[in-house]
């Protein structure tokens, strides 16, 4: 579940849990305590050398919330590399802009559920009987 995350990554994740961004707080209020269709999400979850904003282990889905810094070209390159690394670990990533989460949290939740349905369909179609 953590893909050999280092003790340092765990320490940093713990620190980040204590100071969520406004967008993370909005989404966490809707995800915590299995509030989204009974799904368990973790916040600031360590995976390998990364910390995912939110993670659902059941469907190996990570949710990343992006502020304005993610619009910069060098950050976009890092985000692509990060996503490729996480995809290689079998983790599917969904990204949302912070302002979209704050303004349209219901739509964000709907989109998360749509992506999970796609994953569920993919899983069931790949089963061998």
From TrEMBL:
Pfam families: DUF559 (PF04480). The keyword Hydrolase applies. GO terms for molecular function: endonuclease activity. It comes from the Bacteria. InterPro entries: DUF559, Endonuclease_DUF559_bact, Restrct_endonuc-II-like. Keywords: Endonuclease, Hydrolase, Nuclease. SUPFAM superfamilies: Restriction endonuclease-like. Residues 11-116 form the DUF559 domain. This is Very-short-patch-repair endonuclease.
